[in-house]
Design brief:
alpha+beta, 7 strands, disordered N terminus
Amino acid sequence: SNINCFNLIFKSCDINFIDNSDYILLNDKTPTHLNTHGTFSYLDITFCSSSIANLAEWKTENNLCGSDHFPIIISLFRCSIDSTGFRPKFRIQDANWQKYRENCVNFDMARPINANINKESANISKIILESANISIPQTNRNTVYRVPWWNSNLECLKSEKNRAWNLFKRNMSDTNLINYKKANAKYKREIKLSKRNSLINLTSSINPLTPVEKIWNNIKSLIG
């Protein structure tokens, strides 16, 4: 489908595949995987069709979120409206035009001219949008979903894990890597335990007289 993006983990990749297909590689130079010995690699590769490449934004989370692969976030601007009709807009009055011009030049130099006119058009649009995303603030509305299994202990463990991760990024030593892995394992273990207890509490409160609406509301609350 022309509207689908997909992630692939390649062991090997023919470089000619990209040139001979209608797909465009969205990755930048950001690593996507933390190796066992504390080094980074670029395993996860994301392609999309040229018809939507100019609408796509690709980035990785700064935090591993408990995995050894960085979460990849792909945004399609045309699909960014939530259920209430909210659409992010560029705040032109707050734009940094000097930074915008510099980013346009840098992104343009990083992308060689493509003989395929559709790909070249997509690249130009992508350069403009990427530069705007970096240089021009957008309106936003933060929505916070509360789940019954989250608690203050998990909040503290999350902070400890993030501190260990930030320390490892500043000093990529074996000791800091081990400390991060320990903090991350403890955090994941406590999340699993808290979710299990929350599920037990939910199911134990259900009986033949429980209204269906309440059951579904509890389920939605449990999954956030």
